[in-house]
Every structure is written in structure tokens, then in C-alpha cells.
Write a structure and sequence with these properties.
disordered C terminus, 15 helices, mainly alpha, two-stranded antiparallel sheet
Length: about 475
């Protein structure tokens, strides 16, 4: 039977559900910090939200450098080249170590600059303490990202979900202990939430390194011969060469850098908007952070579907199955579209209840409710651009999403938001109008790009080269 959306639905869901749960768990970690410092007041909510956004704006670039593993590992796995998958794992770990140095340097420079950035006087000291601790989690996040992308490319997604869900349990327990001084520990306030997050992220790295070792051990045993020796041509993970290989690292960098630039452009614009909201009054800043958390939770579904779509599309490309690649991409897009319509409806009909989970302050409830209604406007477009960024990555195209995000967000959406906020006097509402316009443009353009590229792949068998050759086309 020819592959179709119907035949691709179950395999997509099998990968997507654990990945979406993993993305949700990742997002919930920041949300939990915001909720658990909520009783300390709007200033604490603002400090935790701004600190998280400032940190992730830089750390996400290094994590996204590993996105090239989605393409390369899934295509190698689809071609049944396990040896190449193993090589790529060590390339990813090496790249994560190389990225840690410049990213940590930038994070420290930002920490020193916080007193000069114009934050509200009640927020600034809390922000300095929270952010100064949180930046210590960066090396753990980068190594975790390499392990995660390798496992997802090999269709081993359950360990990622398990690691993130259990890490959230650690984060909640550590928050309860360190923020409020339970079990005999000192009450560290907002800074305690940062230490809890550092501990949970270190655990995530160790858990996934263990999962990589365990899963490879099981798969090596499955393909070994009668005597238990290694199968010919498919050595175990720890038996492949692990020496520095500049050519292989350039392949990963060639895919990862555009993907990281795209992710950095999108996350960075929201992080900068959050930093700008910190220059407004604490009520506006807290409401902005709460509404952004809610929109971020909704976005985890298309983001997870995009990761699953990247793996399924890449696997089909590696297997030279054009019809299955197209079916996988469209399945991921339809699932994301359906969910984001549901999310937008929830924001329209239940905004006050959602904001009430974070704060009962009447002013925060009023402003946050209005911001959620604005978020409802861009949900569909945000979901489409999130999932299509993944399906294009499966085809080997990380350049186009980067260019579209840079132009739409930084040259269009953010300038409009800044002018409406600080010049026209719309306040935080102006920021959100600009952010919404940027997302709408990205969603429309990427949907058109995907439609053209998958049509060309089906008709002519051409797709962007997956190892850093720009827009050159190769035939499959």
C-alpha cells in the first residue's frame, strides 16, 4: 500500500507522544519555577521569568546546534548504517563541549551587564541572584541536547520522556526545599529556584548518557552473532573511532548552525521582549511572563510534532521513500494544526482561569487575560511554523527557516512591537502585537516553502544536501 497520511498516523503518534511529553516537561520546568515563586510577589515572578528567558536565549543556540543530528542520525538510521549513527553521537558530544566555552562566556558578560540594562529597581537584585546561578546549568543542557537528538534519531524516544518527567519531580522537590527553607535548609527565595533547576538539568544529562549506553548495549546484543560477538560492519557504540574528525564535525556544523540561528532568532526575540517587559512596571512584566508561559506550553505540542516529523521524514529520505516522506510531513502538520486550533479556543474562552493558576493579583489577572486573547490570534501560525521547521529539517533544509525567522521577527515584528510599546504608549500590549505579526508572517511563508519543496521532492527526487552544501540539490 502506498504511504499516506492514514498509514503514517500511527507511527507518527508513537514517536510524537513521548517527544511532545518531553517538550512539555522541558517547558514545565520553567513554569514550575514561576508558579512556585509566585507567593513571593510579582517582582519574584518577573525575576524568574526574565532570568529564564535571558539564559535560554543564549543556551538554546548551543542546544540547537545539535539539531543537525535529527537529519544525519535519522537518515543514517533509515539507511541502516548504525556505525555512522555512532560516529555522529560522538561528534555531537564534541560539538556540545566546544559550544560550551563561548556560550558560558557570553552568559557571564550578560550577568555583569544586568545593572546597566534598566530593569525595575524591585526586580533587578532578584534577577541577578537567579540568573547568576542558572547559567551554571549550561554545560549540562548542551550535553543533554546531544544525547537527546541522537536517541530521537534512532527512534528511542521513551528515555527522553522519562528523563524530563522525572527531572520535573526533582525540580519541584528541590524548589519546595530551597525556595522556602523546608527540611532544615535555608530559605533562598528566587535563587533557590535557580539551584533546583541546575540540579534537575544535571540529572537530565546523566540520565540520557545512561540511556544511550543501555540502549546501544541492547541493540548490539540483538544484532550480534551466535557466539555473542559483534555483527560484521555494525560495531557497538564504544567500539567506533572517537578521534577528532574535522570533516564530520563540519557536516554537523553545516546543518546545525542554520538551525541554531533560526531557533536563536525565534527564542531570542521573545527573550528580548521579556527583557523589555522587565523595564515596565512589575504588574505588566509578571502578566507578560505568565501569558508567555501559557503560549509556550501550547507551542510544545507543534514543537514536539516538528521533532517527530523531522525524524520520520529523515528516516524516509534515508530509505529513499519519497511518498512516505511527504505523508510523514503532512501528518505532522495536520496534527499540529488541530491542536493549535484547540489551544486558541481555550485562550479565548478560559483566559482568566488560566492566568489564575499563577497569580490572584487583580491587576495581573486583568493584563494577563488581555495578553492571552492576543496569543489566541497567533496560535495557528505559531504551530504551523514550529512543525514545518522540523519537517524541513528532515529534508535537510535548515537554511530557509533561519532566513525567514530573522527577517520576520527581527526586521518586522520586534521593531513594530518596540514602537507600539515605548513610542505609541501601548505598553506590554504593543510588544505582543509586534510578536504576533512576526509569527503570522513566519507561519505563512514556511507553509508555502514546505508545499513547494515536498512537491519538487515527489516529482523530481531532489532535496537540499544534508551536510552543509547550502541550497544545492541532490537526487535521491
Amino acid at each position: 500500500m502506498s504511504p499516506s497520511i492514514r498509514t503514517e498516523l500511527v507511527p507518527m503518534i508513537k514517536i510524537a507522544v513521548p517527544v511532545v511529553l518531553a517538550e512539555l516537561s522541558w517547558m514545565v520546568m520553567g513554569v514550575v519555577d514561576t508558579v512556585m515563586v509566585g507567593p513571593l510577589g510579582p517582582e519574584a515572578i518577573s525575576a524568574a521569568g526574565v532570568g529564564n528567558s535571558m539564559h535560554i536565549a543564549f543556551a538554546i543556540f548551543g542546544m540547537a546546534m545539535m539539531l543537525g543530528l535529527d537529519t544525519l542520525v535519522s537518515q543514517a538510521f533509515g539507511a541502516r548504517d548504525v556505525r555512522e549513527c555512532h560516529r555522529l553521537f560522538f561528534d555531537g558530544l564534541m560539538l556540545s563541549g566546544l559550544m560550551a566555552v563561548p556560550i558560558m562566556t557570553l552568559l557571564v558578560l550578560v550577568w555583569f551587564a544586568i545593572p546597566l540594562l534598566g530593569f525595575h529597581g524591585a526586580v533587578r537584585p532578584l534577577l541577578e541572584g537567579y540568573y547568576g546561578v542558572l547559567l551554571l546549568s549550561t554545560p549540562f543542557l548542551l550535553a543533554y541536547a546531544a544525547c537527546r537528538r541522537y536517541l530521537q534519531g534512532m527512534h528511542a524516544v521513551l528515555p527522553v520522556m522519562f528523563a524530563l518527567i522525572t527531572a520535573n519531580g526533582i525540580n519541584v522537590a528541590a524548589n519546595w526545599t530551597l525556595i522556602y527553607g523546608n527540611l532544615g535548609f535555608p530559605a533562598l527565595g528566587v535563587t533557590g529556584a535557580a539551584w533546583a533547576t541546575v540540579a534537575s538539568r544535571a540529572y537530565m544529562m546523566v540520565a540520557l548518557l545512561t540511556a544511550v549506553w543501555w540502549i546501544d548495549r541492547q541493540r548490539t546484543r540483538d544484532i550480534s552473532g551466535p557466539s555473542g560477538g559483534q555483527a560484521v560492519g555494525q560495531p557497538g557504540l564504544w567500539h567506533v573511532e572517537r578521534a577528532f574528525n574535522a570533516k564530520r564535525l563540519r557536516r554537523l556544523f553545516g546543518l546545525g548552525f542554520p538551525a541554531a540561528s533560526q531557533t536563536g532568532a525565534e527564542v531570542g526575540v521573545f527573550a528580548l521582549a521579556t527583557a523589555l517587559s522587565g523595564m515596565l512596571d512589575p504588574i505588566s512584566s509578571a502578566a507578560h511572563q505568565i501569558a508567555l508561559n501559557m503560549a509556550g506550553v501550547a507551542f510544545m505540542f507543534p514543537l514536539g510534532l516538528g521533532s517527530a516529523g523531522a525524524v520520520r521524514v529523515g528516516h524516509a529520505v534515508g530509505a529513499r521513500d519519497r511518498q512516505r516522506a511527504a505523508a510523514a510531513g503532512w501528518t505532522a502538520i495536520l496534527l499540529a494544526t488541530g491542536f493549535m486550533v484547540l489551544a486558541a479556543s481555550t485562550f479565548v474562552f478560559r483566559p482568566r482561569q488560566l492566568i489564575g493558576w499563577f497569580s490572584t493579583d487583580p491587576s495581573v489577572l486583568s493584563v494577563g487575560t488581555s495578553l492571552l486573547l492576543l496569543a489566541a490570534v497567533f496560535q495557528l501560525f505559531d504551530g504551523i511554523q514550529g512543525v514545518i521547521t522540523g519537517t524541513l529539517r528532515g529534508l535537510g533544509d535548515t537554511q530557509t527557516p533561519m532566513k525567514v525567522n530573522l527577517i520576520a521577527h527581527w526586521l518586522f515584528g520586534l521593531p513594530i512591537g518596540y514602537l507600539l510599546c515605548f513610542v505609541a504608549g501601548w505598553g506590554v500590549y504593543g510588544l505582543w502585537v509586534g510578536l504576533s505579526l512576526g509569527l503570522i508572517v513566519v507561519g505563512i511563508v514556511l507553509f508555502w516553502v514546505w508545499s513547494v519543496k515536498i512537491r519538487d521532492y515527489l516529482e523530481y527526487g531532489t532535496l537540499p544536501m544534508p551536510v552543509g552544501h547550502g541550497s544545492a540539490e541532490v537526487s535521491t
